Amino acid sequence: MNCPIPQDQLDEIYAFAIDLARKAGKLLLERIGERNVDQIYTEKENAVDLVTQTDEDVESLIKTAIQTKYPTHMFLGEETYAKGQSREYLIDEQPTWCVDPLDGTVNFTHAFPMFCVSIGFIVNHYPVIGVIYAPLLDQLFSSCLNRGAWLNEKRQLPLIRKPSIPPMPSNAPSKCIFACEWGKDRRDISDGNLHRKIESFLNLAAERGGRGGKGGMVHGVRSLGSATMDLAYTAMGSVDIWWEGGCWEWDVAAGIAILLEAGGLVTTANPPDDLHAPIEPVKLGSRLYLAIRWVP
Amino acid sequence: MNCPIPQDQLDEIYAFAIDLARKAGKLLLERIGERNVDQIYTEKENAVDLVTQTDEDVESLIKTAIQTKYPTHMFLGEETYAKGQSREYLIDEQPTWCVDPLDGTVNFTHAFPMFCVSIGFIVNHYPVIGVIYAPLLDQLFSSCLNRGAWLNEKRQLPLIRKPSIPPMPSNAPSKCIFACEWGKDRRDISDGNLHRKIESFLNLAAERGGRGGKGGMVHGVRSLGSATMDLAYTAMGSVDIWWEGGCWEWDVAAGIAILLEAGGLVTTANPPDDLHAPIEPVKLGSRLYLAIRWVP
What we know:
By secondary structure, the first copy, chain A, is of the alpha+beta class.
C-alpha cells in the first residue's frame, strides 16, 4: 500500500493511537466494578444486543481526543453511527478513524475479560494503523504500516510474526484453532443465521470424512464473544481461522490492520465460483469476513 | 464441611499450593515459546487429544514438591494416572492432591491464553483447597475452606463473591453467559457426543419459544477450550452457567473447591426424575457436571 502520509507522521499517529487505547482501557476498567446485569445497559435489536453508558462515554473520550489532535481527519464510531440517520458506507479515501469503544459489551457487563477497545486508522480505504486493547487481560495488539504487528509493544511473548508461530498444519483445517461467534440472531428458523452458522461450525469440528466429506476435525472451536478479540488472536497466530458475517467496519478495521501487517490474509467468507481464482483481499464494508493467520 | 485438618495447617497448605501453582505457571510460560504444532505433542485418543512433554514435566515438578513437603498425602495427577494400569476412582477419605498440570493443552500449543495449571486438595472427598493459575493471563483463582475465594489474592478486581457480581437475571438462563466445550469426540453420528452437545447448546442459545419451548436466549455462548477455565470463570461470576460431560477429577477438583467457597452450586448435569427434589451436591468422579455461579 502506497500511503500518502509520510512515515514519520504515521509513526506519530500510531503512538497517539496506542496512548488513546490505553486511556480508553483505563476508563473501561474503572467502570467494570459498576456492572449490574439488570440495569446498566440498553437493549438494541434484541435482548442480547446491548449498549451501555460506558460504550458511549468511551467513544466520546476517543472522538474528542482525535478531533482535538487531528481536526481534519474523519471519524466513524459505532455509537456515533448508531445515532446518525444514514446507513450508507461512510468511509472514503480521506484519513478516517474507525472506532469501536467497547467490543464484547456482553462480556463487559459480566466482567468476562474478552472485551476491548478497537481503534483503526484508514487511508485510501486501507487500514494502516490498528490498536486493540483488552484492559482486563492487559493485552495490547497493535500495528502500523511498515512497522510490524506487536503484542504489548514488544514487551511480551509471543510476539506476532516471530518464530513462536509454528507453520500452518499440513492438513489444515485439522490441527487448527477455529474461532467463531454464535451471534445475536437467535431465531429458530432453518434458514436463519443461527442454524446456518452452527451447520458451518459443525462441518469444521466433525471428524474427517464426516458431514458428507466436509468434516474438518479442527483442533478446537473457540467462542470468545468478541469478533475483535477473535481477529486479534488470529493476527497473533493463537487462532488459525476465523469467519464472521454481519460485522461492521468498527468491529474489524483495527483487527484487519494488525492481521495484514502480521502477514495474515483476510477475504470474503463466501467461496468464489472458481476455486482456483486468485484470492481477493476483502473490502472494508463487505460485512462478511474470513481471516487466516500468517503462514510462515 | 467438617475438616479434620486444623485451620492453621490448612492455611499453610493453601499458601504452599499457591506458591506451587505460580512455579508451575512460570515453567509453562518458559515452554510456550518452544511450541510447534506439528512436533511437540503426542496424540492420545485422537488427533485433538494431546499431551506434551510440558504436561509431564509440570506434573513432575508439582508431584515432587508435594511428596517432599507432605510425604503422607496421596497424589492423583492426570499424567501419573494415564501411565497407571488402574481405571478405578482413586480418591478415598485420605488427604489427596488432585492435579492437572496443564488444562487446555491445545490452547497451550497455539499460545492461546486460556490454559492453566490446576491444583486441588481433597479431604474426606471434599475439595477444601483449589488453585487455578493461567500464567499468560496472570490470573490466579484460589480458595481455601473458610477463607473465601479470590482472584489474584485480593489484588485485582473483580473479587469473587463481592458486590461486583450482580444478581442472577430474573429470567435466567436469559441474560446469562453459558460456557461449554465442543470436546474431543467428533464422530458424526446422530446419538454421539458431538451432536448431543450441540443440540443442548442450541437450546440454550435459541430465542425464547424456539426449539419446541426449550429456547433459553442466553446472553452468550462461550467456548474457551479449557473446562478448568470455564469453571474458574463461573466461580468468579463472569460465566453464569457451565456444563460438561466426561470430565476427570483433575479437570474439576480445584475449580469445584473455588466455586463452592465462592458460594456457587455444582451438581450433576442430568436432570433428576423429580424436578422438585432437593439438588444434590455433585460427587467427585461423577464425570458429568453442571455449575451455577453464586447468586447474591
